Each structure stands twice: as C-alpha cells, then as structure tokens.
Amino acid sequence: MIAIPFDSSQVMQGIASIAPEAILVCTAITVLMADLFLAEDGKWLLCWLSLAGVLAALGEVYLLGSSRIVGFSGMITSDGFGMFFSTVVLSACALVLLMATGWSERAGTQKGEFYSLILMSTTGMLIMAKGTDLMTIFLGLETLSIPIYVLVGFQRSRMTAIEGALKYFLLGAFGAAFMLYGMALIYAATGTTKIPVLVYMSVGGGMAGSSLFLAGMGLLLVGFAFKVSLFPFHMWTPDAYEGAPTLVTAFMSAAVKAAAFAALVRVAMLLFPGVSPAIGPVLWVLAVLTMTVGNISALGQNNVKRILAYSSIAHAGYIMVGLVAGDLLGSQAALFYLLVYAFMNIGAFGVLMLISQKEDDGYDIHNLRGIGFKYPVLGALLTLFLVSLAGIPPTGGFIGKFYLFSAAVKNGYIWLAILGVLNSAASIYYYLRIVVYMYFMTPEGEVVTPHTPPFGYALALCACAAVVLVLGMIPGAVLTMAEQSVLSLLM
Amino acid sequence: MADLVFVLLSILTVVSALIVAGNSSVIYSAVGLLFTFMGVAGLYVLASADFLAATQMLVYVGGILVLILFAVFLSNRISDAKLSNPTHMRVPSAIVCIALFGLMSNAAVTTEWAVKTNVEYAPTTAVLGRLLMTKYLLPFEVVSVLLLAALIGAALLSRPESAKAALKPDMEEGQ
Amino acid sequence: MSLDKFLVVSAALFCCGLYTIMTRRNGVALLMGVELILNAANINFVAFSHYLGKVMGGQIFAVFVIVIAAAEAAVALSIFLRLFATAGSVEVDTADSLKN
Hints:
- The complex is a heterotrimer.
- By secondary structure, chain A is an all-alpha fold.
- In chain A, 77% of the residues lie in helices and 1% in strands.
- Chain A contains 20 helices and 2 strands.
- In chain A, strands 1-2 form a two-stranded antiparallel sheet.
- In chain A, helix 6 (112-130) crosses helix 12 and helix 11 (236-243) crosses helix 13 (304-325).
- Chain A is globular, with a radius of gyration of 22 Å.
- Chain B is 71% helix and 0% strand.
- In chain B, helix 1 (2-22) packs antiparallel against helix 2 and helix 2 (26-46) packs antiparallel against helix 3.
- Chain B is globular.
- Chain C has helices at 3-23, 27-51, 57-87.
- In chain C, helix 1 packs antiparallel against helix 2 (27-51) and helix 2 runs antiparallel to helix 3 (57-87).
- In chain C, 77% of the residues lie in helices and 0% in strands.
- Chains in contact: A-B, A-C, B-C.
C-alpha cells in the first residue's frame, strides 16, 4: 500500500482554480435539497437562491482576477482568458435567472430541477472555458450538454419541445463522438492530451506532417462545429431553439455558444498555427458558408424564435471570421463580439417572451403587429436589440462586427471581409422586417397585450440594453480586457 | 496463441459491428451491438487493460445495452412482428465510409510508431485508482457532477405526466 | 498482434458507426452508431496507452468515456420514451412538426 502524497499547497491551489465552479455545484445541490422542503408557494425562493449562487461565483471570479493559477496537475488553468469567458457565461446565466424570477411560474419552470440543471450546465461551461487538457474540455462539454438536452425538452407535454430535445441530443452526441475520436487520434499522434505539451510539439509546424494529427484536429473541429452550429452541422439549431422554453433558448444561444467558442479559440489560437496551411482555408470556407446559409434561411421564416435561431448560426459565422484572421486583433474581436452577442440576444429573447402569449404559435411574427406604438418601451427595446444584432451603430453589435471585419482586412482576407459585410447587409432585411411588423403593420383585430414584466425581469432587460448601448459608444475598456485575456492565453 | 485470439476477437467485433450498421431490424442490431461490446472487452484484455475490460462488461453490456434494449422494446409495439429500421442513402454512405476506412488504416499501418521495446502486462486497477485520486482528480469530480445532472434529467423527463397540472393554463396549451 | 492492427479494428468500428449515423432514421439505431464510435475511440486510447509507454492517461480517458456513454444512454432513453408517448414513434422523420 503506497500512501498517496498530500501536498497542502497544491490542494489549496487546486481549490482556488475551481472555486467559482465549486460555488455553482454547491448552489445546485442546495437548490435541489431546498426544493424538497419548500411548499409550492415558496418555490420562488429557489430562483433567488440560484441567482445568489451565480453572483457569488461571479464575485469569486473577480477575486481570483486574471492571475494565472494552474490547478490539478495542469488539467485546468484559471487565467485572464478563463476570467473573460467566466464573466460572459456567468452574466448570461445571471440575466436568465433574473428573468426567471417571477416568470418561472408562468412558464412552468419553477422547479428545483430546472435551476440546478442550469447551474450544473454553467459549471460545465466554466470548466470547458478554463480547461487546458483535452480531457477536461471534453468532460466540460458533456457536463454542459447533458443538462441542456434535458432543459430543451423541459416542457415535455409540447411535441416541439421533445422533438427539439431529440434532435439536439442526437446531433450533440454525434458531435461529441467525433470530437472524442479526434482526441484519440491526437493522443495517438502525440501521446498526450495536455494542450501546453501539444503546443510545444506542434510549434513551428512540428506536427504538420503527421496525417493522424491533422485528422484528429479535423475531427476536433467537427465536434466544435456541432456545438457552435457551424455549417453543415447546424441543422439542430432552429429545432432546438424553437422547442426549448424561451428562457432556455436565451441561455443556450448566449452561454453555450460562448463556452464552446472559448475552447475553440483556445485550441485554434494555440494549435492551429502549427497546422495552419492545411486548416486555414477550411476555416475560411466554413465561416463564409455558415454566415450565408444562416442568413438566407432566416429570410423566409415567420416564427421569430426560428429567425433568431438562424441569425445565431449566421453570428457563429461572423465570429469565425475573427478566428480565420488568426491574430491578436481577430481573437480579441471574437471575444468582444461573444460578450455583446450574449447581452443583445438575451435581451431580444426577453422582450419577445413578454409579447408572446404562449410557446410555438405565440412567436409568430404577425403577433408583433401594432406593438410598437401601443407599447413604446417594449418596441424601443426590441428595436435596439435587433439593430445591434444587425450591426448598425451606435450599438455594441456594430463595434464588434467592425473589429471582426477589420481584423480580416488587416490579415489580407479582403474577400472574407466583403462577404461578411454583404451578409451583414442581407441580415438587416429580416431584422428590420420584425421592426416593420411592430410599427407599420396594422393588426388584425386586437393588439396582443404583453405581460407586465416582474421587477427582476425588467431589471435584466434594462441591464442588457445598457450594456449594448454602452459597449456601442465606449467599447475601450472591454476591448482592452479582451486583448489582455487573449494575451494571457498566448503567454 | 495471443495472435490467434486477437484475430478471432477482431473478427467478432467487426462482423457484429457490420450487423449493427447493416441489418434492417433494430433487434438484430442490438444483439450485434452486444457482441461488439464483448469483442471490444476482449481486445482490452489483450491490451493489458483488465479493469477496463471488466468495466466494459459491467457498464456497456450490463447497463447501456440493457437501456438500449429497453428503448427498442418500449418504443416499438412488440406486437409488430417486424421492428423496421429503414436505411437511406446507402450507396454514397458506404462509399464514403469505405474510403475513410482505407485512409485511416493506411495512416495507421504506414506511420512509424515509437513502440515500447518491452510491452508489459500488469494489473492496472491499483494504478488507475491511485491516478483517479491524484492526477485525474478534477475529471473524476466533474464526471460526478455530470452523472448527477444525467440522473436528475432522466428522472425529470420520464416522470409521469401528473406534474403537468402545476403548469399555468396559458403555457400548457402550447401545442 | 501489434499496435497498427488495433488501430485498423478501431478504424473499422468508427466507419461502421459513421455508416449507421449516415443511413439510419431510427433514434435508437442512431444511438447505437454513437456507441460504436465511442468504442472505437476507446480502443485507440487503450492501445496507445499500452504500446507507447506513456503513463495511463489513455486508459483513464477510456474510463471516463464509458461513464459518459452511460449518462448519455440514460438521458437518451428518457427522451425516446417521452417521444414515443407523445408521437408513437422514434423515427427522426416522424418528428417533423418542426418545419425547416
């Protein structure tokens, strides 16, 4: 019997590196337990409890700061990059929970399971964003996905919900399986799964000649493509987005995308330079096809949730532009865009949730007729978020797109930038179509009466609007933060 | 001797995997999957992974396969004589897969592997256990969260419908 | 019995899984395809762990993959049951009330 060595300083360092995740898991279990003891009319407490947990985790992220803490023998690293994405994911989670306060009872999601699944999924996202070993990234991916599969099918009496869950599950499982096989091939070619070691081996094109390594990278990319819904692995997106309760849709579109892109940016920034000549053109084509397919499919939709689903595919394409550019500016722009995207998308879904009377048919674009003048605040908010999604100044969406495309131009991808701008222009059509329905279409019969938002809900919407506007006018601080976090990755 | 066993196990694994892929009945596919899992467990033994072979038998054959069989029987009317499992786009898929197989095996055979000179066979359970408690502690903990989530999720989705009464009427008539 | 033979078996399993995924429309059959790919990846991990003299990382990864496969299968079963209760079938094509 050999005693397991115990080094208290390493243990403390390990605990520090996963402190936010630990807080989230503890909150999830507490919520689950509290659910058993609370009476039916006391369930509203669960939401506030979860929100408190998320805010505590966010506070812990800032206490840890951007200093580099390597925990668990290099499995996970808490650094500036992790801090940036933890902020994005945790704010998305906090916004969604804030909306859920006082709203869950209406959507039937006032259950302990709902909140604990959201918290566990968030844990998986943080682990994926901070993972510095392919094993951690894979486990984080699964930990974030499995709760989301269930959450999509949460309103299980609706056919669309369970169909969305089925499609999301099957395609997610394919993606995970391909990614795993890719990791197996990378392990085959190099004998390790640790990203820093892989970087060391692949630097200067050291692995470019190994067909196994290339194939592994390709399959890894396919796995990520499923998660961030890149063409041609995007088919699940509209179905899953439509089937999920809108709260979950907002959460998925913002947080899952951010976490998956976090791991993708880490892998792409560190490993792709070693294999660049082979993988650059692939990324280029993926980016263009993803934006184009997303935007073209969105044009003909009448369900607002599906329009936003296809628009989220297109946005994955825009963010890929930053990765194709491949330099500091490109990644910085991608990070900035992911942050803005989280706020504007959650905001847009939030307003739509108030207007629609029920799931499915409630999200038909015709229900928006006449909303604009009768309910000016809601109309203005939705317009603001859509304008930002379309990339029109003075919003954060414009700044994000501006930096993404200028990164492409700076690195000589002129055509990519032109195609991106054209796509962006095409997308204005379907975003403004929603606005036109709100302001210029006379309603058939009564204008729908939106729900009055509870206090927390209104607060969340205001926060989204404020962030979108502030980032549109003074983006400097956040851009610097994004730059710092990419630099901390490259160190 | 070991080579012969390897060949037999490989044939068992691949042939039953072909049955999974090609047979038109879900039941036959499920039985094919059973033999694939057993063949893979045998291969693990030959690669000196005794603990994994046992886990494979317990979890895959004893757990996952039973779940899949449950899914097959519960999701098809058993009175239907034929549990159909139609296939689409057979020929192009087959061409893609065979080409890919050729490429991958070519890469495997032609690569110069830095194989260890003395391949040793030793029990692995103690080593694995120690590693799970030291170097791989974090993945171990993450997997526990994942299992908890899967447990809650599966229970939530398959619970009887009665909880529906708690929904407000305006959201309930979603469909 | 050498490393490359293990890899050929693994490649064969991967391709069978891929073929299943590409051709089937039955949810349960698709899940079987995923399981085949996971097994193929596991053979790779175990074989490398054995032959290349690295520490046990590959075998540990394989342990986690088995756990994840079990978790996925459990969630899958509950989704299939729910779908069957609602729609009477687990064919992906019958689940088409979602338009494109």
